[in-house]
Amino acid sequence: MDGQAFVPDLYAIPWFLTMFSHVFPIKKIFHLWDKLLVYDSSLPLFIAVAIMIRLKRQLMTFSFNDCILSFSDMPDIDVDDIVTQSTVLHRDTPPSCSYRVHQPDFADTSLLAIHKEDIDLQARRMERLPIISLSDVCRLNRIKSSTFIGNFTGEEFEIVDDIESLATIERLLIVDCRDEADFKTGTLPGAINLPSKTSFEDPTSEVPISTLRPSLSSIKLISARGSRIIVVAGKDTRDGQAFAERLLSLGYPKLTILHGGFNLLSSLGATLELPDLREDS
Predict the structure, then answer these.
(1) Measured distance CA(180)–CA(195) in Å, rounded
(2) pLDDT < 50 positions in the chain
(3) Could you tell me the CA-to-CA distances from 42 to 54, 127, 221 in Å, in that order?
(4) Do 112 and 46 share a structural domain?
């Protein structure tokens, strides 16, 4: 759809301005509005994503004009399915991945969170993958900040044990895409190393795309495909983004990019964990 210049500005603004009464008839929308009152302010984003997922097959075959006509006269969509899918997306998505500058109820104010001054709106418009905060990585992987930040932040991350949070815990794999030499000096707990420069095979006439080179780390990544959130951590956000987009081209879902990368950790005076190199031997 981006290739056809059919951008969200052309169809999504009325969705949010009218809280989807522009999309659904009033007799069907009360169930959706009930959820909007119960959940936080990020739920409308997930409702919009659920609608797009529901229409994906049709839209991928449409021309620009077909898309315009389709959104002018929306096809019949099961609201209950949209509500169910949007709440599942909300549950499984780390909060920082849907962070917005004017979000009133974003509770994470730690130094490892994403803050509004970190967000370049023009850059955000070009992003193809979400950014995850170090704070969320610590929370979801049950890492206490003191294990590698010490007392620098003066903060600890609460270990959340409610059922909804447990749905995402143990589903996060950190991929350190820095060079092996940097990886050996220290990384995040549990991370695997897939260096950007050496982890992909060059395209050939038989295989015209870059594929992952066989290694123990690439096997772990392949095993996690589709079942775990993959956090790509580079030297900085842009470094991680370049690697993650190569994985995206290979069809990997649930990709995120670590906000600030290891440069941010370095600026916080972090003491990183030495990797167990025996696992990669």
Answers:
(1) 6
(2) 151-169, 281
(3) 19, 18, 29
(4) no
Structural domain containing residue 49 = 2-92
The count of structural domains within the chain is 2
Could you tell me the two tokens for 246?
């190569």
249, 184 Cβ separation under 8 angstroms: no
pLDDT for 173 equals 93
- Supply 136's token pair: 């969320």
Q: pLDDT digit string (tens) for 53-75?
A: 988 888 888 888 888 777 777 77
In contact, 131 and 256? CB cutoff 8 Å: yes
Q: Is residue 194 part of a domain?
A: yes
Q: What is the dihedral of CA 74, 77, 83, 87, to 10 degrees?
A: -80
Other CB atoms within 10 A of residue 162 CB: 7
pLDDT recorded at residue 200: 92
- Both 86 and 134 in one domain: the answer is no
Judged by phi (left if over 0) then psi (alpha if -120 to 50, else beta), residue 150 lies in: left
Of 209, 195, 274, 196, residue with least CA distance to 242: 196
The CATH number of the domain holding residue 148 is: 3.40.250.10
Instruction: Examine the domain organization and report whether 135 and 13 are in the same domain.
Output: no
Instruction: Look at residue 125 in the predicted model and tell me its pLDDT.
Output: 65
